[in-house]
Amino acid sequence: MRGPAGFADIIAPMKGPKAVSVRKGHGMTIETQEEFSPALLHLIDRWCDQRRLPALARLLPGYVAFNGLSDGWEGLRAGLTSVRAMGFEAVGEPDWSVLGDLIRATDAALGER
To answer: In the chain, what is the greatest distance between 2 CA atoms, to the nearest angstrom?
Structure first.
């Protein structure tokens, strides 16, 4: 018996017309959900390791409630933009650019370019 679907399993069906295509910091690009998911998970792991609890408190509700539908994408985007509103100092340089890339990717997934 298979357990609950993971984040990558939920967003994989979103390929096609709603595929994400966004320039990522440092000259890279998030073009698919297969690139989006690891970038988001890496960010969450880093923040856990660094004990960035205020940022995690804002991001995790949208991440945990993500269902692959537009309301799930909206919740995830709300969490990401809420973290960005905390300012650069809350996440640091490498994560700041990734955060912006993830926000642009959620906008693209929602069709809000």
So the answer is: 44
Nearest to 109 by CA among 59, 58, 71, 81: 71
**In angstroms, how far is CA 84 from the centroid of its own chain?**
12
Do 90 and 15 form a contact (C-beta atoms < 8 A)? no
CA distance 61 to 84: 15
Angle between helices 33-49 and 93-109 (to 10 degrees): 140
- Residue 90 gets which letter from DSSP? G
Compute the radius of gyration of the chain from its Cα atoms: 13
Assess contact for 55 and 83: CB atoms under 8 A. Answer: yes
Q: Which long-range contacts (CB under 8 A, 24 or more apart) does 32-35 make?
A: 33/8, 33/109, 34/8
62-101 tens-digit pLDDT: 999 998 898 999 999 999 999 999 999 999 888 998 999 8
